[in-house]
Design a protein that fits this description.
Layout (H helix, E strand, L loop, with lengths): L2 E6 L10 H10 L3 E7 L3 H13 L3 E5 L11 H11 L4 E10 L7 H18 L3 E6 L2 H10 L6 E3 L6 H9 L3 E4 L11 H6 L5 E3 L21 H12 L3 H16 L5
Parallel strand pairs: 1-2, 2-3, 3-4, 4-5, 5-6, 6-7, 7-8
Helix pairs in contact: 2-3, 8-9
């Protein structure tokens, strides 16, 4: 049984000391045979590209997140676009809106989001969306600026109206370790998503699933996310692994080989 972790950050400082060992173990021991390493600013996008080149089972995305708005400049957007043209770059992301951490720069966030949607359309790539406390504006922008290759609502908030809107717009919905939390109320949101539009992720090193919450996350724990999906959907773990693997290949346009 193989798993595809559709969203992880091995470009994060928390993996600085043991990154090589962790990645080797994931592939050889844990059967996590595909992982997308997600960029969120210029520096971390560059590192994601480097890691994807060095590891056959890693793919990368590049982008500037709303929480890295200080990177927003025409020069840096040009750098991101140049990076995105390299091999194994499968999306522009993570991009979007975050009104939880950043309430004072909403207009700049919107402008950055739109510019990167336009970039994705130029490059024929999907997008990976980060949205937090910004569901209405996120959906409005996606309606006004259609994304040609759609993409993913990453670590999708457990907001049923947002999920419905995302599905109506043609996007995939990705769930992470937060669906395992004891107070998550994840049954309704997960049940809403048809299996052919559902992805699993860890968002490593963050959002570690139960019963390991509070420790550093890694892609081996995507199995716990898959297990929770299987429980909610009433299907077996192998089916969740197989379908979400195929879904990730589909959205990122990765061949089966």
């Amino acid at each position: 049984m193989e798993f595809f972790d559709s969203h992880a950050h091995y470009n994060d400082e928390k993996f600085e000391e043991d990154r090589v060992t962790i990645l080797s173990n994931l592939y050889n021991e844990e059967k996590i045979t595909r992982v997308t390493c997600v960029g969120y600013n210029v520096e971390k996008s560059q590192l994601a590209v480097k890691l994807a080149k060095e590891n056959s089972f890693l793919f990368a995305t590049v982008g500037i997140s709303p929480n890295d708005i200080e990177d927003f400049s025409e020069e840096n957007l040009a750098l991101i676009e140049k990076l995105a043209k390299q091999e194994k770059i499968v999306a522009i992301g993570e991009i979007g809106l975050d009104y939880y951490w950043n309430k004072e720069n909403k207009e700049a966030q919107k402008e950055l989001f739109i510019k990167q949607i336009e970039m994705a359309n130029r490059l024929d790539l999907p997008i990976v969306i980060h949205t937090r406390d910004a569901a209405i504006d996120t959906v409005q922008i996606l309606k006004e600026h259609p994304v040609k290759n759609k993409g993913i609502f990453h670590c999708c908030p457990l907001n049923q109206e947002l999920i419905k809107s995302g599905l109506e717009l043609g996007f995939y919905i990705s769930f992470s370790g937060n669906i395992t939390f004891k107070n998550a109320k994840s049954e309704g949101p997960v049940s809403l998503v048809p299996m052919d539009r559902l992805l699993i992720e860890t968002d490593s090193p963050y959002l570690t699933p139960e019963p390991f919450r509070g420790t550093r996350n890694d892609s081996s724990k995507v199995k716990l996310v898959a297990k929770r999906v299987a429980e909610i959907k009433g299907i077996n773990l192998e089916e969740v692994a197989k379908i979400t693997y195929q879904n990730a290949n589909n959205v990122f346009k990765i061949s089966e080989e």
